[in-house]
Amino acid sequence: MHSTYITGRNRRIMSVLLGIFVLNLIAIAQDLPAAKPESVGLSSDRLERIASSVQRNIDDKRVAGAVTLVVRHGKVAWFKAQGMADREAAKAMPTDAMFRICSMTKPVTSVAVMMLYEEGKFLLDDPVSKYLPEFKNPKVLVKPASGATYTIPATKEITIRDLLRHTSGITYQWNDDLGPMYEKADVASGLLQFDGTIADNVKHLAALPLLFNPGDRFEYSLGVDVLGRLVEVVSGKPLDEFFRTRIFEPLGMKDTYFFPPDNKLDRMATAYTYYPDKGLNRFPDTPIREGSFVYTADYPSRGPRKLFSGGAGLVSTAMDYARFCQMMLDDGKVGNTLLLSRKSVELMTHDQLGKIATDMGFGLGFGVDGVKAPLTELGSVGSYNWGGFFYTGFSIDPKEQMIVIFMAQLHPTGDLTLDRQVHELAYQAIND
After folding, report:
1. Quick check: is 432 in a domain?
2. 403 Cβ contact list (under 8 Å, min separation 6)
3. Is residue 246 part of a domain?
4. Are 270 and 283 in contact (CB under 8 A)?
5. What is the CATH number of the domain that holds 365?
6. If you count Cβ atoms within 10 Å of the first and of the last residue's Cβ in the chain, which end, N or C, has fewer?
7. Distance of alpha carbon 310 from alpha carbon 258, whole angstroms
8. Which residues contact 202 (CB under 8 A, 6 or more apart)?
């Protein structure tokens, strides 16, 4: 009788706890709350200038469509889809369109790294070879004025901090000196089909020389793909699983994947190219080659689909990415859950380059504005941001408590500046 009562009571308690857990998940998974612009210190009339600018570029056939989003004080004050997700099929752009966010994957990977750092798994100045032995004893490429290139031992090992701030000596396929070697060694960029895993790719990369000694200068690079593999090794989980369970599910990012499921592929916005002599055209079925750099637009949906590129691989929506940005703006919190500590967010958004680069600020995964030179356009000192290869971008402003997100699908862009215009038009709407 007594044990039956205890069992029944436990069952009721478990039922209540499960209900609370489910309600919390539902609350987290909901979109950020909407608000009238004026209630968060923005002008409705002035925000409409965003729509006018986007529409003008659509009418001029510079871009097929875009989604723009402005969040202030945790509330969505502007969220608009314009133009076409598929121009040829006359398919309108929805607000939940999915975009290849490419290098906007890098901040997500950097957050994953910092979560493991907070668990005491490593220190930022640890050599990465401590966890990925293939990077032990790196060599640096030497290119003499005449004669063949050769390598010499690097003066330092690559640290985890080097990978986070792009001072590792690793580069990308578009580099004239190492790009051809990367292509020959089958190093994946994340923007082309690759029949292998991130572990395979990192081993290919580790066998090649560096462009310079680690820590000497900034060079945007595949180092964040190395960090993706570091997350796998240290956590014991595939990168997609770590992202899903530790970041996406707590944040309610239900439409963010390396490879979207088949039932969501119809929400993928079509990628376009713009060449001045050809105008705006659908991305071709075959890859585009620019020197030793080759890229496609169908890598999320066609091919082996087993490379979890920590530097370029994710597909997401404007609202999903806004949730990620809001977590950063809220000092690592989502609801009552702490993904990162406030101190880690401070470190990530503080310039880590110092004298290494005198003309730019870069933290651990984010570009930082106004820390090396005066602001050149509207914004705030200390705001942080980044963008993606297929014309997506975001900015996070702690001072103004504002997030601006721009999503389109275009490359080459023909020097289009619409993404920057949207950012400035969001700021000129501040009226408090």
Report:
1. no
2. 69, 70, 71, 72, 322, 325, 326, 329, 394, 395, 396, 397
3. no
4. yes
5. 3.40.710.10
6. N
7. 9
8. 132, 134, 225, 226, 229
315 and 262 in a common domain: yes
| Amino acid letter, 268 | M
Q: Domain count of the chain?
A: 3
Task: Using the CB atoms, write b or e for 221-230: b if 16+ within 10 Å.
Answer: bbbbbbbbbb
What CA–CA distance (Å, rounded) separates 392 from 386? 9
- Please give the residue range of the domain that contains residue 385: 37-104+253-427
Residue 50 counted as domain residue = yes
- Residue whose entry in the numeric block shows the structure tokens 């601006």: 404
Q: Are residues 287 and 173 in the same domain?
A: no
Q: Which of 199, 224, 235 shows the shortest CA–CA distance to 110?
A: 224
Is the whole model's pTM more than 0.85, yes or no?
yes
The contacts of residue 387 (CB under 8 Å, 6+ apart) are 103, 104, 393, 394, 419
| Residuewise pLDDT in 10s, the chain (432 residues) | 444 434 455 555 455 444 444 444 434 445 799 999 999 999 999 999 999 999 999 999 999 999 999 999 999 999 999 999 999 999 999 999 999 999 999 999 999 999 999 999 999 999 999 999 999 999 999 988 888 899 999 999 999 999 999 999 999 999 999 999 999 999 999 999 999 999 999 999 999 999 999 999 999 999 999 999 999 999 999 999 999 999 999 999 999 999 999 999 999 999 999 999 999 999 999 999 999 999 999 999 999 999 999 999 999 999 999 999 999 999 999 988 999 999 999 999 999 999 999 999 999 999 999 998 899 999 999 999 999 999 999 999 999 999 999 999 999 999 999 999 999 999 999 999
Residue 152 placed within a domain:
yes
Q: Could you give the CA distance from residue 38 to residue 15 in angstroms, rounded to a whole number?
A: 42
The closest alpha carbon to 391, from 85, 87, 102, belongs to 102
